[in-house]
Amino acid sequence: MNPLPFSPSVLDVFLLASCLLCFGVYRHLRVPPHLQHIPKVPLLPLLFSYFSGEVEEQRVKRLVLPFARRMQTDVVLVYCLGDWMVQVLEAKLGKQLLENPNVWKQRQSQDMLLWRLIGNDNVFMSNGEMAKRHLRVVRTAIQQTMPVGMFADLARTVISLVGDGGRVRWDDYANRYTLDAFGRGVVGYDFEALTKPLGSFVQRYQEVMAAIASPAYVVLPVLERWLPRWRVQRMIDSFVDDMCKIMVEKRQNPGNDVLTNMFKEPDMTEVEYRDNCIVMFVAGHDTTAGAISSVVYFLARYPQIQAKVREEVLAVLGDEDPRVDHFLRTPYLNAVLRESMRHNTPSNATLPRICDTPVQIGPYTIPPNTPMVLNMCAAHHNQTVWSSPDVFDPQRFLDDAEKESTPSSWVTFGIGPRKCLARNFSMYEQRVLVSMLLREYRWTLPDDSVHRDYLKNGFQAFALSLPEDLYIDFTRLTTGELKGGSPDAL
Prior knowledge:
The chain is mainly alpha-helical. It has one domain: CATH 1.10.630.10. The protein has 21 helices and 10 strands. The protein has helices at residues 10-29, 43-51, 56-71, 91-98, 113-118, 128-143, 148-162, 170-187, 201-212, 215-219, 223-226, 230-252, 258-262, 270-301, 303-317, 331-343, 376-380, 400-403, 406-409, 423-440, 479-482, and strands at 75-80, 83-88, 103-105, 165-169, 353-355, 359-361, 364-366, 372-374, 441-444, 471-476. Strands 1-2-8 form a 3-stranded mixed β-sheet. Strands 4-10-9 form a 3-stranded antiparallel β-sheet. The model is unreliable at 485-490 (pLDDT under 50). Heme binds at residue 420. Pathway: Secondary metabolite biosynthesis. Keywords: Heme, Iron, Metal-binding, Monooxygenase, Oxidoreductase.
């Protein structure tokens, strides 16, 4: 053999490896030529935002919407989750995208560990005949289960924990309440998260999601192939295994819950049952927990609104247990919940869609196989649609001048045939807890709260809005307040 003309040093190898890595990163970050006609949100500020751990909601308000206003467009190109995606920032254009029968949900790569957790064979991710079956099965199962009485029981447990009042970490209570609501209402399993918080299922889940949400791996999911995180994979697999054990137990002990009703469908596979169970956990638990944290925050920050909605709740519910028909007569409470979910949208964007053929969205032709999403946070803060979108104003859902435009522009649960199937479950879960809290307490934001200026969400891989370290001061209502007196006058 002829010897090599040179003997590579460690430095040479390091430089070569660095060059190859940089080239690989460049290939992943460059804008494909066929998408360069779409206004592109500048890459470097986006990367800085991702690596700094800025949450999606703040990134949208600080970077995406100002860029779109400068460019006078509601369709932009954004680097997100390891790919360049078209983001639609307005509800009518979102409707045009999401109601297009030729547009399909993109099957996600297992590179990103989030998809290893929730899978692809579920009601959120599936397409075609599988999607029709999942939609029918899950819709029927949820419609047969509206456990308002169970929500009230859990709300009483929350009230017993708050007791006579004091400072409470409310985002923790919201997480535990929604986990127990999901457990008992969806899978027929009591997680006992409210009564046994230490070492609870929700704590394990939060640890899994925090591990998944490493900024570097969210920006470049291909790193999961280059630098696999075996420990995180084991955490995910252990969590999924425990969820499967709950499913086995539910088959042996059926009850009045969503999972029992799903098991009546003979054509679904075990993988489909598993993926649906886990995706309902992620979507149903996290989004509602974030919504409950948000509405309690806004009522704490705006005491006049809190007093007004309490007056309505006391007039309609009195001291009765909440029923479905009660909330047909609480328009202001409903408006407060809708405005809260507009202002801090629980899930900021839809799952990506693609199409085999070109798609026209507004003035832009989107090439085939391009990921497309409706950015719901941007749609809810779009100044061309909403007056003073950064102001918390429930009245916008009640005033005649805005009534006609707000329903079609409010897209918290999505648009079209794939909108959230559990939206009523979530709304009643929120209505019951908030109304029962209003009958027991008034609450305020501590002067030293990190949320004093605005509501701050924690970093999430799934573009969710989950307030973090949200402490609230609760005070028991006096007899005078319960009879309609003003706390300032007492």
